[in-house]
Amino acid sequence: MHYLDASALVKLFVVENGSSVLRDYVSEHSVFSTTSICFAEVLGVLKSKFLRKLLLQEDYLAACEELTACIRNGEIKIEDIGISDRSVFDQVEDIARKYTLDISDAFQIVTLKIGIFSLLKIDYKPIMITADKALAKAAINDGLMVWDCLSEPSP
Predict the structure, then answer these.
(1) DSSP strand E in the chain: where?
(2) pLDDT 10s digit of each residue in the chain, 155 long?
(3) How far apart are CA 38 and CA 24, in angstroms?
(4) Strand runs labelled E in 14-126
(5) Counting Cβ atoms within 10 Å, is residue 29 exposed (0-12), middle (13-18) or buried (19+)?
(6) Is 109 buried (19+), middle (13-18) or exposed (0-12) by CB count in 10 A?
């Protein structure tokens, strides 16, 4: 199981530093998830790239279509643990404060800690895939498996 954060998801749909390594890895593996917050964050990043003229309109629309198609086809699943639930948000806020993260990043750590795979009785930990060094460091410090796709070889 692999969790893609927004910084990694963007690399799947726009050519950036690290895109080819991540795309190769994704093509060789299955079972990828993200949060709805990351999904929305990626749409915002793509919009920003389009508005700043870093993406042509056609490339922007194509990237958004590819992203939504991956969700629609189940290639990337959305896992949400209930951000509106007060006890979940309290955990997210605690992680955000502990590591000086934004809510989206903290939500990902909590998702890995209490989400669907935490309930299974297996010796396998899901891997968070990110290009965000601060998020990677926080997740590792919180006992999670992380692949920083910009600075580490693929797992």
Answers:
(1) 2-4, 32-34, 76-78, 127-130, 145-148
(2) 899 999 999 999 999 999 999 999 999 998 899 999 999 999 999 999 999 999 999 999 999 999 999 999 999 999 888 878 999 999 999 999 999 999 999 999 999 888 876 666 666 678 999 999 999 999 999 999 999 999 998 88
(3) 21
(4) 32-34, 76-78
(5) middle
(6) buried
